[in-house]
Design a protein that fits this description.
The protein is mainly alpha-helical and 200 residues long. Helices cover 76% and strands 0% of the residues. The protein contains seven helices and no strands. Helix 2 packs across helix 3, helix 4 packs across helix 5 and helix 4 runs antiparallel to helix 7.
């Protein structure tokens, strides 16, 4: 039981770091270096920049108002649904990370910390990286399936002419998934290296 608790603690800390550091950094970098480079003859470059920033704001924090100068009502509805999921994941990982750090801080002085749990934690994180790899490999299936699971209300499908689709094309999400895969793989390998350092 203790091994499981410490494994979950290491995994929680790793996922929290990925969510708040790697995930945000990759998202912003991809927006700046990939999404803005797509040719959109019908969309002014200044509009692209401001609309993307507003989309990011809508999907990461509650925003007031029922209309927007850039997005349709359906697009706004989807962005707000994304924000609810984002907020839930942020809260869940935040609470888990705080609890995990508290456990480790209490355990270190008593020398009861279980570093052997780093090995199963590494396996779990590498498994998550494999899932991300399969997500990208079968993107045409996994992306719609993901939306059908997390957005069963069905407000996630838009025409190709939709500004939201132009701002966040499939390539954007594929590269974003790859960045998460690399991050999870890196943290998983770090867990293996730390385990080997202490026990081999």
């Amino acid at each position: 039981m203790q091994r499981i608790v410490y494994t979950l603690a290491y995994v929680s800390i790793g996922l929290w770091w990925l969510f708040f550091c790697v995930s945000r950094l990759a998202f912003i970098q991809l927006l700046q270096n990939i999404t803005f480079q797509f040719e959109r003859p019908s969309v002014n470059a200044d509009v692209v920049v401001e609309a993307t920033q507003r989309a990011y704001a809508y999907s990461t924090a509650p925003q007031g108002g029922g209309s927007d100068i850039f997005f349709t009502a359906d697009e706004l509805s989807h962005l707000r649904d994304v924000e609810q999921i984002y907020s839930f994941v942020r809260l869940l990982l935040g609470v888990a990370a705080v609890a995990s750090l508290s456990l480790l801080l209490v355990s270190v002085p008593k020398q009861k910390i279980d570093l052997r749990a780093l090995f199963p934690a590494g396996i779990f994180l590498c498994g998550c990286a494999l899932v991300a790899f399969l997500f990208v490999l079968f993107f045409s299936i996994s992306f719609p399936l993901f939306h059908m699971i997390f957005f069963p209300q069905g407000n996630w499908q838009f025409p190709d002419s939709s500004l939201l689709i132009q701002l966040f094309p499939d390539l954007f999400w594929q590269l974003y998934s790859v960045s998460l895969m690399v991050g999870m793989l890196g943290v998983g390998i770090l867990c293996f290296l730390l385990y080997r350092y202490w026990y081999e």
